[in-house]
């Protein structure tokens, strides 16, 4: 996911879900009168951090958006500059001792549509635990399962695309094939030391405006596209759309619909 401009223009599903979750969970969180130090993990192009999260926070001193992609961080810093907001590069999965990078820690940690890319869930949660101050809370929102991942798996089996997708399992949510993804997530978080305030994986739907929007959305988040030779990319995207249609993501009226499970974990670091 390196095209920040494309992602910012094709992430309506992500923005909708972030707003739904924030509207429900922000009133349930404990807020300090003097303001909060907040981190947004996987800030991407920065639009959700700036336009959704920051305005909805009841009290805030500063929000730090972090992302593994330097291109995303640079785009976010240039496009969504604000005196209560900054953007930094950070790999939440592979960084060792992240509190050395952010010594003061954070009172709240949020993450939207990022952690399904993380294979080492336990290490990721350990880093989030370390970044939180005692008594802090995390609200983590990401895909538990999604037809997009099934499409990747099916595409990787095709001879014309296999060589570009040999590591497809690295880009599939570790909860994709779990019978109870929320319980699996809860077990890992509890082992790390979190109190589980709630952890659910509800089934949701999102209807895309038109086929071009679906194409742009796929292109914006597809980790394999940059590996495909430029002259074959249009065929790859066309095949991706056809594969999604075979997964019954197309309605009788022709509109494409995504049916997926969204992990929503509200965690607390004990005092």
Assign an overall shape: globular
CATH superfamily of the domain at 4-144 and 174-206 and 257-268: Vaccinia Virus protein VP39
First-last Cα distance: 37 Å
Helix content: 25-40%
Which residues form runs of ≥5 with pLDDT under 50? none
Task: Please write the CATH class name of the domain at 4-144 and 174-206 and 257-268.
Answer: Alpha Beta
Q: Roughly what is the average pLDDT, rounded to an integer?
A: 91
Q: Count of helices? A: 9
Q: Based on DSSP secondary structure assignment, what is the total number of beta strands?
A: 8
Beta-strand residue fraction: 15-25%
Largest sheet: number of strands, sense, barrel closure: 8 strands, mixed
Q: What fold name goes in the CATH topology slot of the domain at 4-144 and 174-206 and 257-268?
A: Rossmann fold
In CATH terms, what is the architecture of the domain at 4-144 and 174-206 and 257-268? 3-Layer(aba) Sandwich
Q: Give helix and strand order, one letter per element, not per position.
A: HHEHEHEEHEHHEEHHE
Rg for CA atoms:
18 Å
Name a few traits of the molecule.
single chain; 271 residues; eight-stranded mixed beta sheet; 9 helices; globular
